[in-house]
Write a structure and sequence with these properties.
Blueprint lengths: L1 H9 L2 H13 L12 H15 L6 E2 L2 E2 L6 H13 L3 H26 L2 H13 L1 H6 L6 H19 L7 H25 L3 H16 L8 H26 L2 H15 L11 H9 L3 H4 L12 H23 L12 H17 L6 H26 L11 H6 L12 H18 L3 H31 L1 H9 L6 E4 L6 H4 L14 H6 L6 E6 L12 E7 L2 E6 L1
Parallel strand pairs: 3-4
Antiparallel strand pairs: 1-2, 4-6, 5-6
Helix pairs in contact: 2-5, 2-6, 3-4, 4-5, 5-6, 5-8, 6-16, 6-20, 8-9, 8-10, 9-10, 9-11, 10-15, 15-16, 17-19, 19-20
């Protein structure tokens, strides 16, 4: 028995983290349809990339798509080539990066603190609510954030000096870290855009000011970093410019400016939107990090420096995306790295006995935990008693949408009840000094709550929003016909109908398909609240209505 336990203890920790990552991120990836707009948008671009074999250019509706670079689309296209064109294939790249992220932060925490710090950091990243959800999604940000963090980490590794390291090894590591940082920054730009460089440069500039100009960089380092970044970005841009001309660069830049200066797609919000989103969504890590900003005299210089970099990154992300006019919850998701680090930092010192569990952690932990449980229980309660909606004033689409036949049971309340019980038990255990058991209960209950919500509750909520439309689109997948939407924006008709490559310019023109002469049947999807705005209704016959959507066919 002792030999078995010894062999078990000799297994590297990253192996256990890998197994945990697979168990947390992979299940239920294909349990719900992809959501408009972002998930379907990116998956459709990957599908069209496979269909047309135009791998250097991102497309949507078989037209150049100027808003996003191709790296994440490449990952999805590669996944779809193995797993087929489906929800699982669209989301598995982020699940893989979730596992990679866990192992990466574990190694960083282990290197500058100890194995315990690395494990807590990885587990907080995996089990906090929004980070877990995003690694189970089909959006760009988890991959984008990973490469920004990696670039900053290598710059941090350069900035600190190990007096016991031989000079030759130090110089070699310096060049390697610098090159690796630049490569990661270049890939981040290829994933989502130049905002990656803005974040990296701003974080380093603030650190430079805090350190009074001392950062172990010189002008030659800066030039080398910029050259490598330029080579990575330039390799992609050269293909794009040759394929689409300078129009691509112009439109891409205009889109980035629009995101900063306008409320794109109606996604506006108050200036504190992202602060609130991170505080609530990154539960429980966000609660645990509340006391981590204070100084700890026992920290080494390297630990103090890493903590400083993480705090600066958190502040930069929150300020940048609070200034940006477009307020979308995942824009500030890069902050999950510093928030989970600071949460792990608190647990690290709590476990060592340097810090104590007090009401400052217990009260917000209980309040936010109860709020999450109550919100989900309330949603289930509304599902069990749909007649409540009749007393709520809603627009025409919402009024019809809530009439969807969705089957809820009282057993669904076990999901929020489990979170509530776990939070209460964890608070009691942590208050009694049972740190490891208390944190295990908290993380397991939070993880199960998120996973079960995604598996059981989200697919039912989807039935109120887009399921009727996707059901119609899937029914037309094998029919040689056109399907368009009118009165609202959607990418679902492209992905779930499985639109084929247009044979002519007219086939790719929605306005011509809707109003011009066609040889194929034409179907139109609109919403009850948009129906009065459609000026070509006389050319169409209504087929049926369902959950707020109206389905029409050209006469």
């Amino acid at each position: 028995m002792n030999n078995v336990l010894k062999r078990f203890s000799d297994v590297p920790h990253w192996v256990f983290l890998f197994i945990i990552g697979v168990l947390v991120f992979v299940p239920f990836l294909g349990n719900a349809h992809l959501f408009d707009w972002d998930e379907i948008n990116f998956a459709e671009s990957a599908r069209e990339m496979l269909l047309t074999h135009h791998y250097r250019t991102v497309q949507i509706n078989f037209q150049p798509f100027y808003e996003k670079p191709p790296f994440f689309i490449w990952l999805q296209a590669l996944s779809m080539s193995y797993f087929g064109v489906n929800e699982f294939a669209a989301r598995i790249p982020n699940a893989v990066f979730g596992i990679v992220t866990m192992i990466t932060v574990y190694n960083v925490g282990r290197r500058y603190f100890d194995k315990s710090m690395g494990i807590w950091w990885a587990l907080l990243f995996a089990c906090s609510i929004l980070p877990q959800m995003y690694f189970k999604s089909g959006i760009i940000d988890p991959v984008f954030n990973y490469f920004i963090f990696l670039s900053l980490y290598f710059l941090f590794a350069i900035s600190i000096k190990d007096d016991f390291e031989p000079n030759k090894m130090r110089r070699n590591n310096h060049r390697w870290y610098l090159t690796a940082s630049a490569l990661a920054a270049g890939v981040a730009v290829l994933t989502k855009g130049p905002v990656a460089l803005g974040i990296i440069v701003l974080v380093v500039t603030i650190i430079l000011l805090i350190n009074r100009g001392k950062l172990n960089f010189n002008l030659g380092d800066l030039i080398l970093w910029l050259v490598v970044v330029t080579l990575v970005i330039g390799a992609w841009l050269s293909f794009e410019i040759r394929a689409n001309g300078l129009a691509f660069v112009h439109n891409f830049i205009i889109y980035q400016i629009r995101l900063f200066s306008t409320e794109d797609a109606g996604h506006g919000g108050p200036v504190y939107f992202h602060l609130l989103a991170v505080f609530l969504g990154c539960f429980p890590a966000s609660i645990l990090c509340l006391d981590s900003f204070r100084r700890q005299p026992d920290d080494t210089l390297h630990q103090v420096s890493l903590k400083r970099w993480m705090i600066v990154l958190l502040v930069v992300v929150l300020i940048i995306f609070s200034v940006v006019k477009t307020k979308i919850i995942h824009y500030s998701s890069l902050s999950y790295f510093p928030v989970t680090f600071l949460g792990a930092y608190f647990i690290h010192h709590l476990q060592s006995g340097r810090w104590r569990w007090t009401w400052r952690q217990a009260v917000p932990l209980m309040v936010i935990g109860i709020a999450f449980a109550a919100a989900v229980a309330g949603a289930i309660g509304l599902g069990l008693h749909p007649e409540i909606f009749q007393s709520i004033k809603m627009d025409a689409f919402a009024t019809e949408a809530v009439k969807a036949k969705v089957y809820w049971t009282v057993n669904d309340l076990a999901v929020p009840a489990g979170l509530l019980a776990g939070v209460i038990a964890a608070a009691i255990l942590l208050g009694r000094g049972r740190v490891i058991i208390g944190m295990a209960v908290l993380l397991i209950s939070t993880c199960l709550f998120t996973n079960l919500s995604l598996a059981l509750i989200v697919p039912r909520i989807e039935k109120y929003s887009q399921a009727a439309m996707i059901e119609f689109l899937e029914s037309k997948k094998l029919e040689d016909c056109y399907v368009e939407v009118a009165g609202f924006k959607s990418y679902a008709q492209l992905f779930y109908k499985g639109k084929s490559q247009p044979a002519s310019a007219q086939d790719s023109d929605p306005s011509f398909i809707l109003t011009g002469p066609t040889t194929k049947p034409v179907y139109v999807i609109t919403r009850v609240d948009k129906l009065p705005t459609i000026d070509f209704m006389d050319r169409y016959t209504e087929i049926y209505r369902k959950n707020g959507f109206v389905f029409l066919k050209k006469k």
